[in-house]
Specification:
The structure holds two protein chains of two kinds. By secondary structure, chain A is of the alpha/beta class. Chain A is about 30% helix and about 20% strand. In chain A, the strands form eleven sheets. Chain A has a five-stranded parallel sheet, with no helix packed on it. In chain A, a hairpin with a 4-residue loop joins strand 5 and strand 6. In chain A, about 45% of the residues are buried. Chain B has a four-stranded antiparallel sheet, with no helix packed on it. Chain B has one domain: Rieske [2Fe-2S] iron-sulphur domain (Rieske Iron-sulfur Protein), CATH 2.102.10. Chain B has no helices and twelve strands. Helix content of chain B is about 0%, strand content about 45%. Chain B starts with 17 loop residues before the first strand and ends in a 6-residue tail after the last strand. The chains are: A alpha/beta, B mainly beta. At the A-B interface, helix 16 and helix 17 of A face strand 2, strand 6, strand 7 and strand 8 of B. The complex binds flavin-adenine dinucleotide, iron/sulfur cluster (2 copies) and FE2/S2 (inorganic) cluster.
Chain lengths: ~850, ~130
């Protein structure tokens, strides 16, 4: 038995389910004021990561991004973690486990969460170089390393994982990729023949070559794979093969220990997840429960919670799980739910097919037409969540059930349908969050965004599949509570920013008053005035000094108001490059006007503590020395940060400073829904932190990679890769389009990261719009951007040179020379500092 | 005669105002505000040119004692178009009629009556002792 008083729980396997078990056990034991010592043995060299999103490892996500825990989590939770050290043996009599590195660890309870491995058929040539499986980060590293030498590749297995692997191979640049499936259709466990045909057509369009009814006999070649030989005596030459022919539960440890296992594999457990030994549990993909191995993460999480409950308050059983799935395969929605295959006479089937748009939908309803039993959706799965809820909650169908898959606009049908779900309807199955909890969070805790909902209830933090439903529930609850979620700007304009922008542009509106007369009511406010100011500025690029009183105070005084009421002065230092002479000027000006100086994260120098009346004089001196406004006060381009690049750095591939300056000079002054930051790095070492910016450009051997929609700030988010290896001119064109698209469609005060997060279709949609010009707007946007660039003028220069404008920079209009006597400063480290408030 | 007047709501019955010349009409931007110094007090004056109305309040925001209200944006709230002002610092908004904070906080600013004569702006100041 254990030496400490706390019971010891040993977990074999630190995969998705093993990790979830630890989280659940910690949470439940805290609630019950119990204590356990958790000891984990993991075979893989890294802590648990998100296997479900494994393929994103090829799209720029790092090991860290995929990790399921924050650095330091295990230590903080007092969990002992042995990585790269699998358990080799269980001694059930002594209640100890023996690890590969020779550790002997006693346990009170043992939880087997060893997952599964890819099933590799026994065939000749399987050991050859170039043959891979697709399960772990290590597997992906091997594939990534091998891919550059391959010009064609095949995936064995046309199931869910196989198709995902095929997409990954395409992403790795292997244009000639084949899928080999033994059955007569793709995804045989999820979709039917008609669905498969439609999917095949779409995948073929995207460049995948599909071979059905093919049984592979052998892998041929020398030490490396050269071709596949099939039972029908045909051959396919390939340089690389990824096997995805199913999974096999990792029950070897249990077998060795004499625990009962299923005839076709899997550790046998009862509904409390107990194995044939009451002190040993099995959960996740290694467990065989109700005669079934569940190959999805959500049921695994439910099993983890079952064991955590049984070790604490003891009241939970696992009674099966819905195997519905929805995924996006290479941009094609595929979903199956409930019982997709049930056939007449046990049901009636309604099917809808549109070969033109590539849509196939099938629903199965009870013979009396009252309930939905299951179905398949391909090409458009927007109604998936609603339909699934219909099945799981046995909701009565409307009189014309065909409306569920055609006709009525999904949004409207969805809205009400969702609100009529019963309170206990499970919305997020990964985290077991029912509808009631989500609606309560909206009403009682004022949660209005998915992000906040994730934090508050954890709904949507697992596989993410329920997020659209969570969104709809938030909107539906708000609506039911009489609150608006229409993105109208404020009470004065019944339009969203995008609608207003269009109206103003089409009708040539030039002033706030005109806009208010035509489209608004009342007198405006602090929300719509700056929003309209931004719209007018991005459309016509007229000096904002023309309508000062609709500008936020910062834009009105062309400086940021600081604690105490003083202002900061931020001259532009493009790309962070500055001459010694200019540095001296900054120092002299700061000294003369007693300003606090600080170097900022955006590679420029801010001068703080200026009296409003001194601003024009300060800028006069700066402008004389060649400086320009840095627009730190505006919702506009701030800085394009650069690393020193190839001009000095030994790793530099291209001249990142020159490019950063070129980009910053191009977009300076342009008004947007929010501030915009950029970065340019001279190589992958990324010293300019470009991936934390709204747009980031990183040099490659062949050109530049363009990343978009990153964000520092309170909710950091990495920028995502939009396109690789483009030249400077193309990069500027894509940036023109990207920025115009953002300026035109984002809500006020929405950074690009949030804008993208809210965008239907996400990055792939954005990519289509920007790179493939799917909206046909590219030429117009580029032209409009050029118009804005050509009409740039430094706002401060204008003020300095116009006595009328200069006059505005005074604290007392009846005593223009007097400074605000309440504005006083403290001292700190030989400089001034704003007084505390 | 007044050519443009502020609403008299701020004047309580029987209260005596000392009318002080504050500035010229042109000193205050249209639909915006400006600050004047009167009797060593900082007063914010707002010109609602859309409505042809003028308002005056203390310049200090009671939230964090910042002399900044004259630099805030003005506008209206609600079905009755209550004229209001937003502090540039943290967007507390105040009614220009009553001086009450409209973001549900127990804050209040002093409001003063305004008169316009011959292109000049006059603000009614209370006698010192009454303040
Ligand atoms: C590419 C891919 C895409 C997927 N997509 C989806 C999806 O879209 N939706 C979905 O629901 N599911 C998906 N899955 C399945 C999902 O990832 C699994 O259901 C889930 O990971 C199962 O968790 P687990 O903890 O049981 O197993 P695993 O995550 O495999 O973890 C088991 C861990 O135990 C370790 N281990 C094994 N034996 C020992 C030992 N003796 N001692 C110590 N450690 C040991 C293993 O090395 C492994 O790290 C996908 C899987 C893959 C590979
Ligand atoms: S990103 Fe590359 S080129 Fe730029 S400074 Fe760092 S190492 Fe040098
Ligand atoms: S992080 Fe916060 S405190 Fe620091 S400068 Fe930004 S807003 Fe101010
Ligand atoms: S100082 Fe005015 S709102 Fe904070």
């Amino acid at each position: 038995m254990s030496s400490t008083s706390k019971p010891i729980v040993v977990v074999a396997g630190n995969g998705m389910v093993g990790h979830k078990f630890c989280e659940k056990l910690i949470a439940r034991s805290e609630r019950e004021s119990m204590e356990f010592q958790i000891v984990i043995f993991g075979e893989e060299p890294r802590p648990a990561y998100d296997r479900v999103h494994l393929s994103e490892y090829f799209n720029g996500k790092s090991v860290g991004d995929l990790s399921l825990s924050m650095a330091g989590w295990f230590g903080d939770q007092d969990v002992i973690l042995h990585l790269g050290d699998p358990i080799r043996e269980i001694n059930r009599t002594a209640k100890t486990v023996h690890s590969s590195k020779g550790l002997v660890q006693p346990y009170d309870y043992l939880v087997l969460a060893t997952g599964s491995s890819a099933f590799v058929p026994d065939m000749a040539g399987i050991e050859k170089k170039g043959v891979f499986v697709y399960r772990t980060i290590d597997d992906l590293d091997l594939i990534k390393a091998y891919a550059p030498q391959a010009s064609n590749a095949a995936v064995m297995g046309g199931g869910l994982l196989g198709l995902e692997a095929a997409k990954a191979l395409l992403d790795l640049g292997i244009a000639d990729t084949h899928i080999i499936e033994f059955a007569s259709r793709l995804m045989p466990r999820q979709i039917d023949q008609a669905g498969s045909q439609l999917l095949e057509a779409r995948l073929t369009q995207l460049g995948l070559q599909i071979h059905l009814n093919k049984s592979t006999l052998a892998i041929e070649g020398g030490s490396r794979i050269e071709s596949l030989q099939f039972a029908d005596d045909t051959r396919l030459p390939v340089d690389m093969l990824v096997i995805s022919a199913g999974i096999r539960p990792r029950d070897e440890l249990a077998r060795l220990a004499g625990l009962q296992v299923g005839a076709r594999g899997g550790i046998l457990v009862n509904e409390r997840m107990e194995t044939s030994d009451k002190h040993i549990f099995a959960i996740g993909e290694c467990a065989l429960v109700n005669g079934m191995v569940y190959g999805l993460v959500a049921p695994g999480y439910e099993m983890a919670d079952t064991v955590a409950a049984n070790l604490t308050d003891g009241r939970k059983t696992f009674t099966g799980f819905d195997m519905s799935t929805k995924l996006k395969l290479i941009g094609v929605d595929v979903a199956s739910f409930g019982d997709p295959f049930i056939a007449e006479p046990h049901c009636r089937t309604i099917a809808f097919e549109d070969r033109n748009k590539g849509i196939y939908k099938r629903i199965n309803i009870t013979p009396d037409g009252k309930y939905l039993l299951g179905g398949i959706l391909i090409g458009d799965a927007s109604t998936y969540n609603l339909l699934l809820q219909n099945v799981t909650n046995k909701m009565l169908l409307p009189p014309d059930p065909e409306e569920l898959i055609m006709g009525v606009r999904s949004g409207e049908a969805g809205g009400d349908g969702i609100m009529s779900l019963p309170d206990e309807a499970l919305v997020c199955s990964c985290e077991s969050v029912p509808k009631e909890v989500i609606c309560k969070a909206v009403t009682d805790k004022f949660i209005h965004t998915v992000d906040d909902m994730k934090k508050c209830t954890r709904a949507g933090t697992g596989c993410g599949g329920c997020i659209p439903l969570v969104k709809d529930l938030i909107a539906g609850t708000l609506k039911a509570n009489g609150q608006y979620l229409r993105n109208v700007i404020c009470e004065h304009f019944d339009h969203s920013r995008q609608e207003l922008l269009d109206l103003i542009k089409i009708n040539g509106i030039r002033s706030f008053d005109e806009a208010l007369d035509h489209y608004g009511k009342g007198d405006g406010c602090e929300v719509c005035k700056p929003a309209l100011a931004s719209i007018l500025a991005s459309l016509w690029n007229e000096p904002i000094q023309k309508q000062v009183t609709i500008q936020d105070s910062n834009d009105r005084f062309l400086a940021n108001i600081q604690k105490g009421g003083s202002y900061s002065v931020v001259p532009r230092i493009p790309g962070g490059e500055i001459t010694p002479d200019k540095l001296i000027v900054l120092g002299k000006v700061a000294k003369k006007y007693n300003l606090y100086t600080k170097i900022t994260g955006g590679q420029r120098i801010d001068l703080f503590g200026a009296h409003v009346g001194d601003l024009p004089d300060i800028w006069e001196e700066l402008i004389a020395a060649g400086f320009e406004s840095g627009h730190a006060y505006g919702k506009a381009l701030r800085t394009v940060k650069s690393c020193v690049g190839s001009t000095w750095c030994r790793f530099g591939l291209h001249d990142s400073v020159s490019f950063a300056i070129r980009v910053e000079q191009r977009y300076k002054g342009i008004r947007a829904p929010h501030k915009i930051k950029g970065g340019v790095s001279g190589c992958v070492r990324e010293c300019a932190e470009a991936q934390a910016k709204d747009f980031g450009i990183i040099a490659t051997e062949k050109g530049w990679n363009l990343y978009v929609c990153g964000n520092g700030g309170s909710k950091p988010q990495h920028a995502q890769l939009l396109i690789t290896d483009i030249d400077e001119a193309t990069c500027i064109r894509y940036l023109d389009r990207f920025l115009m698209f953002y300026i035109k469609t984002a809500d006020p005060l929405t950074r690009t990261a949030v804008w993208l997060n809210k965008m239907e279709g996400g990055l792939s949609y954005l990519k289509n719009v920007v790179v493939n010009d799917s909206l046909g707007m590219a030429a117009q946007w580029e032209e409009e951007m050029q118009g804005l660039v050509d009409s740039y003028a430094c706002e401060w220069k204008e003020v300095v040179e116009t006595p009328e404008l200069r006059k505005r920079f005074t604290h007392f209009v009846n005593a223009p020379r007097r400074k605000d006597p309440t504005l006083v400063f403290d001292k700190m480290r030989d400089q001034i500092k704003a007084k505390e408030w | 005669m007044d050519n443009q007047t502020g609403r008299p709501t701020a004047a309580r019955a029987g209260e005596k105002w000392k009318w002080r010349m504050a500035c010229r009409v042109d000193d205050v931007p249209k639909d915006g505000g400006a600050c004047v110094s009167l009797d060593d007090e900082q007063i914010a004056i707002f010109h609602f040119s859309r409505r042809g109305e003028w308002f005056a309040t203390q310049n200090e925001c009671p939230h964090k004692q910042q002399m900044a209200l004259s630099r805030g944006l003005i506008g209206s709230a609600g079905p009755d178009n209550e004229p209001k002002l937003a502090c540039p610092f943290h967007k507390r908004t105040f009614s220009l009629l009553s001086g009450e904070c409209l973001n549900d906080e127990p804050l209040r600013i002093a409001v003063y009556p305004v008169r316009i004569r011959d292109g000049k702006v006059f603000v009614g100041m209370r006698a010192r002792a009454e303040k």
